[in-house]
Amino acid sequence: MRRNSNSWSLFGVITVYAMMSCCEGRIVLPPNVTVPAVFAFGDSIVDQGANNHVATLIKCNFQPYGKDLHGFGPTGRFSNGKTPPDFIASELGVRELIPAYLDSNLTPEDLVTGVSFASGGCGYDPQTAQIVLAISLSQQLDQFREYIGKLKAAVGEEKAKFILENSLFLVVAGSDDLANTYFTLGIRRAQYDVNSYADLMVSSACNFIEDIYRLGARRIAVFGAPPIGCLPAQRTLKGGISRFCSEEQNEAAQLVNSKLAPALASIRQRLPQSRPVYINIYDPLLDLIQHPYNHGFEVSDKGCCGSGAIEVVLLCNRWSRMCRDDSKYVFWDSYHPTESAYKIIVDQLLQESVKYFE
């Protein structure tokens, strides 16, 4: 994958200073904050192509996915273009695009600026990944251990430790647990009520965060659950003939978030130098959905691909009807936002959250 000319050299360090010009569209960071790399774990929101390399039907390495990712095309990103790891890495001056760890073209230079271990269909609940043969969080953790060995071989123990301790780690999961495993398929409903399932998810999330902390991660941005009841597919499946947002699902997402935020605060108090930060994705996305015109969008209840009501992954393909202008849509398919929506959300989240990673 092509590297940004502003990326690290193999032995370099990018230090991003606070007085960046706002007119250049770059994020304003606290003085002397160094962000050498961006890493991602979790599900399809931050899957940069890992599922291309595993035996799952949850793939998107075909048209029209990636149609706006100029020079690359379908890479396995679940969108029409860039995804949150790409925008975050670009805004922080790290590199243009974050590659998947399983990318066969990965180079030693790519190792030092970060990779994504995420896999579409993964969740905090181990059963979520098993259902669709995605790469589970425990497997992503194994890959991270393998990655650390490669990083040390490339830059040495001391530099590898510096990279891990100062990089930004994204943990994005939970949507598939709630939308698919719990509500749509109902696999866990016989075992757990919503409250106890939320406890299971948060406990798993905390265990995972502590695992990557023990391997060297310190700055950890943990995305909360989005308003899954307002995703186009969930409107179709659970919203009745009028396709209203499913309040039951949105309330479950809010319950998870209400438990996750204090759990992360507890970890921060307990583990020395740890900086796990809860990232509120629920409200920014809900605002785009409820007030699309305020942000330059026109359609927020359907995706750009196909009918927009149900198509995702294999059902969104080169034979699907496409909207005329995907920049006017909040959602690309019936589950994943467009590049335009991601950019607005990421810009807002970085401005609000980066101060917590000093």
Give an overview of the whole structure.
By secondary structure, this protein is α/β, with parallel strands linked by helices. It is built from 11 helices and 8 strands. The chain has a domain at 33-229 and 246-280: Rossmann fold, CATH 3.40.50. Helices cover 38% and strands 9% of the residues. The strands form 3 sheets. The chain has a 4-stranded parallel sheet. The protein has a two-stranded antiparallel sheet with strand order 1-2. Helix 1 (84-91) crosses helix 11 (339-353), helix 4 packs across helix 5 and helix 7 runs parallel beside helix 9 (247-270). The model is unreliable at 1-27 (pLDDT under 50).
- What number is the mean pLDDT? 91
Name the CATH architecture of the domain at 33-229 and 246-280.
3-Layer(aba) Sandwich
Taking strands numbered 1, 2, ... along the chain, how are they ordered across the largest sheet? Answer: 3-4-5-6
Largest sheet: 4 strands, parallel
Number of helices: 11
Provide the helix percentage.
25-40%
Beginning-to-end CA distance, first to last residue: 30 Å
Could you spell the SSE succession in H and E letters?
Answer: EEEHHHHHEHHEHHEHEEH
The whole-angstrom Rg is 19 Å
CATH topology name of the domain at 33-229 and 246-280: Rossmann fold
Multimeric status of the protein: single chain
Report low-confidence residues grouped into runs of 5 or more: 1-27
Q: What structural category arises from helix and sheet content?
A: alpha/beta
Proportion of beta-strand residues: 5-15%
Tell me, briefly, the overall form. Answer: globular
CATH class annotation of the domain at 33-229 and 246-280: Alpha Beta
Number of strands: 8
